[in-house]
TrEMBL record:
InterPro entries: PrgI-like_dom, TraC-like_dom. The keyword Transmembrane applies. This is PrgI family protein. Residues 20-104 form the PrgI-like domain. Residues 116-316 form the TraC-like domain. Pfam families: PrgI_like (PF26592), TraC-like (PF26593). Keywords: Membrane, Plasmid, Transmembrane, Transmembrane helix. The keyword Hydrolase does not apply. It comes from Halosegnis rubeus. The chain crosses the membrane at residues 30-48, 60-80.
Length: 337
């Protein structure tokens, strides 16, 4: 028998998938769909006393209708299961999500966020690897009606910025936020109560029509506002040695480099002060470089906003802290005596 037809050498078309039993659904899907019905039968036949009635009807007589409804909900759950997973795994994720805590302690959270602490006065965040991170928000030029030549000029200007200004690692981060439709439309709705609008029926109808049209247009387009940021890190080793110096090269050598870093490490407070100073200088250089691009504007991101950005990145939702400055602690709760 040739290897092409040898059953022992067959190659499966996919891994980790169940045999399809009914169309695209597997036996696992059928089991998940039927699980609520099984639970209903167990509860009505085992847990609930047989003498219990509901409006004169024995509960045991309702077992089949209730089980059918439960199976229908189970089938709906299977039907709504995303394509990247199976119904059993999704059920486990669903249960774990609703059983998990909505808030965790900082020591546990930083295993995911890698955020050690925030420096509100210096507008910086310290990572768990002791690197400091700052950010600059970028307002790019409007290019909706730009020509190919203008696009090429902007691209060349950005290339010059990267080649001449950026001598350290950066990260470009873009995110979106919901368009403040209520604030925008509210101005027109407030006009409806003005005397000059009330006395002019045509103007009132025009404003009402515009507000109604704008609400439908926003719902259809799902308009958002895109924000752009440049994240700038500073690592401890970048301020310990002169760039391209002999000590810097030796510090990169395995084993020997660790010993050199231990011996040459400055006091922690001095090192942090040097890192904060370097971070501030890098922020200014990035701002100057980006402002050199025609139509581009920048501003430094304060610690409160940077913290909110990180929180929204990990939660996937917009977060409102009220007064962010009051949320960030500027002094320890317990001081050393």
């Amino acid at each position: 028998m040739s290897s092409a037809t040898d059953p022992a050498k067959r190659i499966p078309k996919s891994l980790g998938t169940d045999t399809q039993f009914l169309g695209k659904y597997s036996l696992t899907d059928l089991a998940v769909a039927g699980l609520p019905g099984v639970l209903v039968v167990l509860v009505t036949q085992v847990v609930i006393p047989p003498s219990l009635t509901v409006r004169g009807i024995p509960v045991s007589a309702l077992t089949i209708p209730l089980a059918a409804i439960a199976i229908a909900f189970g089938g709906l759950f299977v039907y709504l299961t995303p394509g990247y997973t199976n119904s059993l795994d999704w059920l486990g994720l669903f249960v774990n999500f609703h059983r998990s805590e909505t808030e965790i302690a900082h020591e546990e959270a930083k295993e995911y966020t890698h955020v050690e602490r925030v420096y509100p006065r210096q507008d910086a965040i310290e990572r768990t690897d002791r690197a400091l991170v700052g950010a600059v928000q970028v307002s790019p030029p409007t290019m909706a009606l730009a020509t190919d030549e203008e696009w090429a000029q902007k691209a060349e200007a950005f290339q010059d910025f990267v080649n001449t200004t950026v001598e350290f690692p950066i990260q470009i981060y873009s995110t979106t936020q919901a368009f403040p439709a209520d604030e925008y439309v509210g101005r027109y709705e407030d006009r409806l109560s003005d005397p000059d609008v009330k006395s002019n029926e045509k103007l009132q109808a025009l404003i009402e029509h515009y507000v109604d049209w704008y609400d439908r247009e926003l719902a259809q387009r799902q308009m958002t506002i895109r924000d752009h940021y440049v994240l700038i890190p500073v690592r401890p080793e970048e301020v310990r040695y002169e760039r391209a110096s002999l000590l810097e090269k030796l510090a990169r050598i395995p084993v020997l480099g660790i010993l050199i870093q231990i011996v040459t490490a400055p006091p922690e407070e001095e090192e942090r002060a040097a890192m904060l100073e370097e971070l501030d200088e890098r922020r200014r250089r990035v701002e100057r470089g980006l402002r050199g691009i025609e139509g581009c504007d920048t501003r430094p991101v304060d610690a409160a906003e940077l913290t909110r950005l990180i929180a929204e990145y990990w939660t996937g939702t917009e977060i409102e802290y009220g007064d962010p400055e009051q949320v960030l602690r500027t002094s320890p709760v317990i001081n050393k005596s």
